[in-house]
Amino acid sequence: MKFLLDTEHISILQSLSQPAFGLLEHRMNQHPGTNFFYCTASLHEQVIGAHSWINRATKPAGVIRGYSKLRQALDSFCSAQLLQFDHRPRRVNLSCF
Length: 97
Hints:
The protein has a four-stranded parallel sheet. Helix content is 56%, strand content 12%. The chain is built from four helices and four strands. The model has no long low-confidence stretch (mean pLDDT 89). The chain is an alpha/beta fold.
């Protein structure tokens, strides 16, 4: 079975925040890593979130946090299997995790 991780799952994996990370990691460890995919739509959502942090920043620390979030998204998505968002049907069965 293949799994498409949504933006919330991806954020949990990036932040390592407990207890959600521990629960997600436990469930994911029951399957091969090659069974998990990210979607370009999630990348878009994370870039918008980082952009929002940068635009709302009133202090340098806020700008730094926004760019940190952007870098974290870039690193995460570069190391993931990424599905293109398009109209073509997939031959792969994808389940929400």
